[in-house]
Amino acid sequence: MARIRIPSAIVIIFVAVQTGFLLFMYARYSNFMTQPEEKPSQVHILILSSWRSGSSFVGQLFSQHPSVFYLMEPAWHVWVTMYQNSAKVLHMAVRDLVRSVFLCDMSVFDAYMPWKRNLSDLFQWAVSRALCSAPACDSFQRTDITSEMACKTLCGRYPFSKVEEACKTYSHIVIKEVRFFDLKVLYPLLTDPSLNLKIIHLVRDPRAVVKSREQSVKALARDNGIVLSTNGTKVEDSKYKVMQEICRSHVQIYETATLKPPHFLKDRYLMIRFEDLVRDPLSEISEMYKFADLSLTPMLKSWIYNITHGEGPGKKKEAFKITSRDAVSVSQAWRNDLSFQKIKKIQEICRGAINILGYQLVDSEKEQRDLSLDLVLPRRQNQFSWSSFNPEH
Ligand SMILES: *[C@@H]1O[C@H](CO)[C@@H](O)[C@H](O)[C@H]1NC(C)=O
Ligand SMILES: *[C@@H]1O[C@H](CO)[C@@H](O)[C@H](O)[C@H]1NC(C)=O
Ligand SMILES: *[C@@H]1O[C@H](CO)[C@@H](O)[C@H](O)[C@H]1NC(C)=O
């Protein structure tokens, strides 16, 4: 029998290499065991809201940040393509699209726009500063504050592939969506190791939402039909069935995130009320930025000052339609403009949401019209805090 002689030095090296490899694997494994929540360095922010709640405004606050790639309502394409389905049925397709966009995989739009397309085929593309500046479009710098109008004129004809190319160059991907009605639908994204998802839940007084919805009845009719599952029939929501569903979903999302939240929601959920934002923009914006790991640049600070004081180039017409100062009175407009009968009806339908989100009900027309009576309770009142709570798994 032939004996293979192996020089002892080789054996020692072999054993050393193997031990090293095992130690490496062990370190990786134990690291994996003790830090199951190690997330990618990119940050993914979902602004979760509903129609007419100030989410375009909040979207702009992120979109203009030089580190942010922002898309407004990318799942609009899902709803438009499959309008005969219900919101519930479309949840999964919407979630899949949102996940792909977070990962900068824009091939997901092939399903909804099968033709050869340009940048401008993407819904609301021009409100995204990232799609108006390099590398998506050469007309603006990444640090510029861009306007929708100027961007539309200069950047629309770039190929669609620029969306993906641009996305990949950013540290923060932010998406605004009004098409989720259940927080649990998002759990798979929160636990997905390839995502680092944080949710900003933006809410607004339902009575103010109704007032604002009344000003855009036609524009909302198709989406209403999808919410109510009418097989493609447009709905005007005169009976507030859609409002009821919106209020129900805000309660569900808020309670799910705060009453007994799963461990993976820790530090990943922030509720913001539109009323607080318009009353004290800088403090609310700072909190959202901190939550999102973004810093407030001097340029952004100046811009925010301008838009919240109705100053600077563009003034009221550009970007926001309303400045924040106007928004304070706009957010009270329902108290003068809607009848008490109507308010009573909305309060019946949305009582839970009004209470839980920190607004006061009115008991009479006198209370409704008396603007010295503040119906927005102080923010963060008896708010849930992780430090005093040991989450269950
Ligand atoms: C896309 O842009 C090209 C020019 O780059 C133009 O010829 C074409 O008409 C555009 N297509 C659409 C759908 O706008
Ligand atoms: C939905 O509408 C389409 C055409 O408008 C019709 O063919 C289909 O049968 C309808 N489906 C249901 C479930 O009513
Ligand atoms: C804000 O407004 C001032 C005064 O009009 C202007 O000089 C400045 O450029 C504006 N800042 C931004 C970031 O738009």
Automatic annotation (TrEMBL):
The keyword Ion transport does not apply. It is found in: Golgi apparatus membrane. Its EC number is 2.8.2.-. It comes from the Eukaryota. It is a single-pass type II membrane protein. InterPro entries: Carbohydrate_sulfotransferase, Gal/GlcNAc/GalNAc_ST, P-loop_NTPase, Sulfotransferase_dom. GO terms for molecular function: N-acetylglucosamine 6-O-sulfotransferase activity. Keywords: Carbohydrate metabolism, Glycoprotein, Golgi apparatus, Membrane, Signal-anchor, Transferase, Transmembrane, Transmembrane helix. The keyword Glycoprotein applies. It is an enzyme of class 2 (transferase). Pfam families: Sulfotransfer_1 (PF00685). Belongs to the sulfotransferase 1 family. Gal/GlcNAc/GalNAc subfamily. This is Sulfotransferase.
